[in-house]
Amino acid sequence: MSLDILKQGAEGRLYLGEFKGESCLIKERFVKKYRHPELDTQITRQRMKAEAKAAGRCLAAGIRAPRILHSDLNQHKLYMEYFGQAKTAKQFIQETVASKGDLSESILMELCSRIGSTIGQMHSNNIIHGDLTTSNILINPKDTDYEVVFIDFGLSHYNQASEDKGVDLYVLERALLSTHSEQPYLFDAILKAYSKDSGKDQEAVMIKFEEVRARGRKRTMIG
Questions:
Q1: Which of 21, 87, 100, 200 could form a disulfide with 91 if both were Cys (CB 3.0 to 4.6 A apart)?
Q2: How far is CA 180 from CA 1, 95, 125, 147, 173, in A?
Q3: Residue 201 among the catalytic residues
Q4: In this predicted structure, what is the pLDDT of residue 2?
């Protein structure tokens, strides 16, 4: 059966396909020729399993993520729920800034509040995403509203450590500074909402985040 390629990136291809009569997204991971074949297979399987487990944990905690319909470890393919009308948060932010003028900041502040709250819920359930960027967050329209969907959990893991949660936040901050540098208020809005919903470890996580941030700035200065 021929499949329609939706996107091709450094890690793999995304196809539009079908599983048991349901339209789905098929994520196929590339074989990395520069790695030893056995090591490549091991890493690929680990990341596929991590993605499926994290998505399942999110759904169990009431956090929107794609349902994993099937996992084919031999073919390196994950079959997952397809959000056909969704766009990435990156696209949403860029389009809002371009088209909404003076209203854009209030619209994006609401978006950031939802994103921060959801990341807080993830961390309170000890789910570490591992690659938080606005390209890995979908805005899925629902009637007159939308839902925030987190995707691409290949680098995720389950951990109670405040350090790992702080690193998760730092990765997102760096991604926002790189991709949305003209909207410096985005991360502060996310962090404010995060602090309300990240659970009893919030204070410890923020301390670790500041430590990680300081180390990152030091590395930047030293080069």
A1: 87
A2: 40, 12, 28, 21, 10
A3: no
A4: 60
